[in-house]
Amino acid sequence: xxxxxxWFFSALFLLAFxxxxxxxxxxxxxxxxxxxxxxxxxxxxxxxxxxxRFSDNEALAQYKIDIHDNLDGHDHPKMYRARPWSRLIIxxxxxxxxxxxxxxxxxxxxAAGPYHLMVRAVDKxxxxxxxxxxxxxxxxxxxxxxxxxNIIQFPSDGATxxxxxxxxxxxxxxxxxxxxxxxxxxxxxxxxxxxxxxTLHVQPLTYTYQKNFSIPSWFTSGEVILQIDVFDGAxxxxxxxxxxxxxx
Length: 248
Known about the structure:
Layout: E1 3-4, H1 11-19, E2 29-32, E3 39-43, E4 47-55, E5 60-69, E6 87-92, E7 97-105, E8 113-123, E9 132-139, E10 148-153, E11 160-161, E12 165-172, E13 178-187, E14 192-199, E15 206-213, E16 222-232, E17 237-246
Parallel strand pairs: 3-9, 11-17
Antiparallel strand pairs: 1-6, 2-4, 4-7, 5-6, 5-8, 8-9, 10-12, 12-15, 13-14, 13-16, 16-17
């Protein structure tokens, strides 16, 4: 088996269609043999062992393993060294049935939180297999505890809101410091939402979060949901979520 990296996976499809018969329309098959569950739990410093079986009616060609974070695409801590983890592995396949093992270390500096593992494959005729998608959850061994959140002022669950309302939270963290506060205000019945992100670049161990929250003008009367997520430098998260009724 020959492994390559940095080669754009989809380019194989064009080459395969030009070089091979168009009569083969059968997709190859991927099986992840050692992780039947939907979610794989890991810690920083662990090693992810994947045993994969690929099969095809005529001839296999190539596979791709893509690991990437599901951390909302925001910037990440500057002081503590935790960073989103990612891996891209592309390898060649031969014959009609092949089992491969990939041993993938999780960086010591990997940010805690959710990730995705995706496995794809194509045969020599350019047919693409139905991909495998697994959830990965990583705990950072340097800092395993989420921030602490104490409510000073916050509307009670089920309250009726008619205008701006104050929020005050006392936040603290034990180790890597407070990094980011994400506020998301949503209205399910009309798919409206409003989100803000506050980044604490100095990552203090304690912080008082105060905000006079204004209701967006595009919201209408009805149920609304407010969720605040507090992240520390290792990307551990503490959340508070409340359902309200908005009377416009």
